[in-house]
Backbone:
């Protein structure tokens, strides 16, 4: 018998549910995972979706904002986040809407690399969008879509903080009412 090793890691609940739906109740989890992983890894390379890498330069500031966003939305990964944003933007475009509110690139510093491996089909959709928007670079599109989402998230955070601060202030007693016994007269 081949020596065994433990494989442990957190996965999304939805994926766990999908995996366990197909598990034979007579199989152990280890036997089932061995079967699933072996079947996946033994597929011919052509059966697996071809991947392309899209890499753009971003500023240190945007990198830190992205890191904060991902920390706040754990276990979301950078890859899943950017792929989701690109898919949403391209879906909007394919339905006749312009996904970028402002095509002007405001992140001009190139201090960090944002590299995302993505399915060939998504990479091709990005290229189609850029072909239709002559003069727009991959960097401008990707940075624009990411920056737009980060700005939206920061605005939501600021609104939440303002609401919490306003609610906390409304909970504090009014000093004038305290002196007057909450509005009651103290004269006799």
Residues:
């Amino acid at each position: 018998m081949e020596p065994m090793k433990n494989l442990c890691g957190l996965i999304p609940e939805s994926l766990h549910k999908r995996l366990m739906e197909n598990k034979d109740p007579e199989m152990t989890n280890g036997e089932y995972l061995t079967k699933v992983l072996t079947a996946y890894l033994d597929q011919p390379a052509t059966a697996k979706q071809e991947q392309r890498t899209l890499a753009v330069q971003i500023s240190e500031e945007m990198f830190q904002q992205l890191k904060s966003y991902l920390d706040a939305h754990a276990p979301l990964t950078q890859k899943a986040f950017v792929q989701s944003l690109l898919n949403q933007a391209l879906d909007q475009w394919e339905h006749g809407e312009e996904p970028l509110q402002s095509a002007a690139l405001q992140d001009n510093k190139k201090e960090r690399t944002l590299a995302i491996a993505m399915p060939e089909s998504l990479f091709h959709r990005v290229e189609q969008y850029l072909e239709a928007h002559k003069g727009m670079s991959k960097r401008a599109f990707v940075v624009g879509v990411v920056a737009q989402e980060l700005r939206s998230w920061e605005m939501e955070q600021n609104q939440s903080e303002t609401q919490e601060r306003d609610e906390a202030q409304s909970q504090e007693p009014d000093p004038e009412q305290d002196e007057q016994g909450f509005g009651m007269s103290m004269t006799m």
Remarks:
- The CA atoms of residues 31 and 126 lie 40 Å apart.
